[in-house]
Design a protein that fits this description.
Blueprint lengths: L1 E4 L3 H14 L10 E5 L1 H11 L5 E5 L15 H7 L1 E5 L2 E7 L4 E6 L2 E6 L5 E7 L2 E9 L1 E5 L7 H4 L11 E7 L10 E4 L4 E5 L7 E5 L2 E3 L2 E8 L5 E5 L5 H8 L12
C-alpha cells in the first residue's frame, strides 16, 4: 500500500498513523493507493493514478462522498472485502478565442461559467445536431455518474445511478429557456458548447478544477481510453450512496427531514 494525504494537519496525522501500522510503499510499486483527505483530494489522487492501481479513500475531510470512513485498524481486512467501481472520465477539448486548443480530463464534470457581469449565451449541440440555438444562463455543465451528486446536484441536475451509462447535461441558473432543467444523455454522446456574443459575454470552462479562460467552444465526450478504479467498503459502496442521496430529504417513516 501507498499512503497519500492532503495538506491538512488531520490528513498528515492520519497518514503517519497508517504508516506506523502498515508501512508505506512507493506509489509506482503499490498495489493499492490509500488516499487520506476529502473529496477534493480524492479527485486529485485519481487524476494521478488514472489507468493504474485502485484507490481506497478514507475521509479526513468534510463531505467525503467518494471516501470510506477513517478507521486505520483492520484496514487489510476492509481492503480484502472492498467493492471495486471502475469508471471512465470525460475528455474536454476547448478552443480559446485566441486560438489555443486545450485538452483536459474531468472525473466529475465539465462546466462552463460566465466570466463577466453579463449572462452567458451558449449554443448546445449533441452529436453534431444543434439542440438549443441559444441558452441564456450563468453556465452549463456535463456530468458523469460519479459527479452527478457533486456540482451537478447543486445545480438541480439529476442523480445518475452507476452503471447507467448516462451523462447529465444541466444548465446553471438558466434565464432562457427559463424552465429548461437539462437533459439526460447516453454516455457516448458528444456535447458541444459554442459561446455566443463572446466579446460582450466571455465564458470560462473547467474540467473538474482545471480552468480554461475565454473559450470560443468546448467539446465534451467520454474518454473511453481512460479509466479509474475506486474501492469502497461493501456496506457503503458508491451505488448505495447514490441511491441514499436520492432519499436524503427523508428520515424514518417517510417524513421529510
Amino acid at each position: 500500500m501507498a499512503f497519500v494525504a492532503d495538506a491538512t494537519k488531520a490528513a498528515r496525522d492520519a497518514r503517519r498513523a497508517c504508516i506506523k501500522l502498515y508501512g508505506d510503499a512507493p506509489i509506482e510499486r503499490a498495489g493499492i493507493v490509500v488516499a487520506l483527505g476529502g473529496d477534493g483530494f480524492m479527485l486529485h489522487t485519481l487524476h494521478h493514478t488514472m489507468d493504474g492501481v485502485p484507490v481506497y479513500g478514507m475521509n479526513v475531510g468534510t463531505v467525503g462522498f467518494l471516501m470510506n470512513a477513517y478507521r486505520p485498524e483492520g484496514l487489510l481486512e476492509r481492503l480484502g472485502r472492498a467493492k471495486e467501481v471502475r469508471l471512465h472520465p470525460l475528455r474536454m477539448v476547448a478552443k480559446t478565442r485566441s486560438g489555443r486548443r486545450i485538452t483536459e480530463i474531468a472525473i466529475n464534470e465539465v462546466s462552463l461559467l460566465r466570466a463577466s457581469g453579463q449572462m452567458a449565451k451558449l449554443a448546445v449541440s449533441i452529436d453534431g445536431v444543434v439542440r438549443m440555438p441559444v441558452l441564456a444562463c450563468d453556465g452549463a455543465l456535463a456530468s458523469t455518474t460519479a459527479g452527478s451528486t457533486a456540482y451537478n446536484l447543486s445545480a438541480h441536475g439529476p442523480i445518475l445511478p452507476l452503471g447507467s451509462r448516462l451523462l447529465a447535461l444541466t444548465p446553471i441558473s438558466a434565464h432562457r429557456p427559463r424552465h429548461w432543467r437539462g437533459a439526460i444523455l447516453p454516455a457516448d454522446a458528444k456535447i458541444r458548447f459554442e459561446t455566443l456574443e463572446a466579446d460582450k459575454r466571455p465564458v470560462n470552462a473547467s474540467a473538474d478544477h482545471r480552468e480554461v479562460q475565454d473559450v470560443a467552444w468546448v467539446e465534451v465526450a467520454e474518454a473511453k481510453d481512460r479509466s479509474m478504479s475506486l474501492l469502497f467498503d461493501p456496506e457503503h459502496h458508491l451505488e448505495e450512496r447514490i441511491l441514499r442521496e436520492q432519499f436524503a430529504a427523508f428520515v424514518g417513516g417517510g417524513e421529510p427531514a
